[in-house]
Write a structure and sequence with these properties.
The protein is an alpha+beta fold. It has helices at residues 21-26, 35-55, 68-73, 98-107, and strands at residues 60-63, 87-91, 114-117, 122-125, 135-141, 147-151.
Length: 153
C-alpha cells in the first residue's frame, strides 16, 4: 500500500478519495498500490479542491478511487475512470439541485473530461493524457428506458 497523505487538501482528508462503504461492508481492500493511480488521484484531489472553492460550499465525496473488485461490486464498467484514480462522485448539500452545480462548473470553464449529473450525485473525471472532452451533461431515459446523455449547451 502506498502512502496517500499527499492527497490531503485544505478541505479534504486523504482517506476521502479511497473511502468506500461497500468496500468495508464486503471486505474489499481498496488501498492504492499503483504509483500512477496515486499520481492521478493527486490531480483529482486538486480538482475536488478547485470545485469546493468555486462553489464556496462543502462537497461530499461519495466515490473516488475503486479497485477492480470494488468497481465490479458497485456495478460499474471495467473502463471506469475511477479505476485509474481519475474520477470522483460527489454532491453538495447546500445545493438542492445538481443541475445548478453542473451549470455553474461549466460557466466557470472548469477543465474536465466529464461532469455528469447522475441523479443524486455528480460524476466528475479528468484525463491523465490527451485532451479532456469538457463534457457537461445529464442522463434522461430514452423511449426504450435506456440512459440517453444530454449535453448542456
Amino acid at each position: 500500500m502506498l502512502d496517500i497523505s499527499i492527497l490531503h487538501r485544505k478541505n479534504f482528508e486523504a482517506e476521502e478519495f479511497i473511502n468506500s462503504n461497500t468496500a468495508k461492508r464486503e471486505g474489499i481492500d481498496n488501498d492504492v498500490y499503483d504509483p500512477i493511480v496515486l499520481a492521478n488521484l493527486n490531480r483529482t484531489a486538486d480538482k475536488a479542491q478547485e470545485i469546493r472553492q468555486l462553489l464556496n460550499q462543502p462537497i461530499k465525496l461519495t466515490s473516488g478511487y475503486r479497485c477492480l473488485k470494488l468497481n465490479r461490486e458497485v456495478g460499474s464498467k471495467d473502463t471506469s475512470q475511477h479505476l485509474k484514480g481519475q474520477a470522483i462522485d460527489f454532491y453538495c448539500p447546500a445545493f438542492k439541485n445538481n443541475a445548478l452545480i453542473v451549470q455553474k462548473l461549466k460557466e466557470h470553464n472548469l477543465v474536465v473530461d466529464q461532469c455528469l449529473m447522475e441523479g443524486s450525485w455528480i460524476h466528475l473525471s479528468i484525463r491523465e493524457f490527451g485532451a479532456n472532452r469538457n463534457q457537461f451533461a445529464y442522463f434522461m431515459p430514452d423511449d426504450n428506458g435506456k440512459r440517453k446523455i444530454i449535453n448542456l449547451k
